[in-house]
From TrEMBL:
An individual GO BP term: regulation of RNA metabolic process
Annotated signal peptide: none
Protein family: Belongs to the class II aldolase/RraA-like family.
Name of the protein: 4-hydroxy-4-methyl-2-oxoglutarate aldolase
Subunit structure: Homotrimer.
Residues binding Mg(2+): 98
Cofactor entry: a divalent metal cation; Mg(2+)
Gene3D superfamilies in alphabetical order: Ribonuclease E inhibitor RraA/RraA-like
Catalytic activity from the UniProt record: oxaloacetate + H(+) = pyruvate + CO2; 4-hydroxy-4-methyl-2-oxoglutarate = 2 pyruvate
InterPro entries, alphabetized: RraA, RraA/RraA-like, RraA/RraA-like_sf
EC number annotated for this UniProt entry: 4.1.1.112, 4.1.3.17
Keywords: Lyase, Magnesium, Metal-binding
Length: 161
């Protein structure tokens, strides 16, 4: 993977969308990119587990957890599952847990915060649908670029120097 520096991407491609600066970089892979897939689920990670068990093919899963800070949608076991299945990372508009383990994994994780309690597993949610999150319109197939400076969304894969 080429070196990702989101400020340079923004300078070279002023048409990219930039997600609001509300996410913490919590994974061991500080910079990551890939075609994005989407999931909307509120305090329920059953559909998240199902998606991460499928081949990721180098994609980044963007999860709209409604901004909830009452439970975690992802922890070390789901991150391990994602890695095993070829996902590059996740961006969660909600919380994660097991952050000490996540920080040691070669996996991209950005989230609003940390919570020790896991989410429910009732199976609610919608996958692979366009959504609005953190001030941006996200459509499956767009490209997501993330690092310690922020998260940008491009319509297509960008040439990185």
């Amino acid at each position: 993977m080429s070196h990702i520096i989101t400020p340079d991407i923004c300078d070279a491609h002023p048409d990219v969308q930039v997600l609001e600066p509300v996410f913490l970089n919590l994974g061991g892979r500080e910079a990551f990119c890939g075609p994005l897939r989407t999931l909307a689920c509120f305090e329920d990670n059953a559909l998240l587990m199902q998606m991460l068990a499928e081949p990721g093919d180098g994609a980044v899963l963007v999860v709209d957890g409604g901004g909830s800070q009452r439970c975690a949608l992802l922890g070390d076991r789901l991150a391990e599952l994602a890695l095993e299945n070829g996902w590059v990372g996740v961006v969660i508009h909600g919380c994660v847990r097991d952050v000490d383990v996540l920080a040691e994994m070669e996996f991209g994780v950005q989230a609003l915060g940390v919570h020790p309690r896991r989410g429910a597993d009732n199976g609610g949610g919608q996958r692979d649908q366009p959504m609005h999150m953190a001030g941006a319109r996200l459509v499956p197939g767009q490209w997501l670029y993330a690092d310690n400076n922020g998260i940008v969304i491009a319509e297509t894969r960008l040439p990185l120097e």
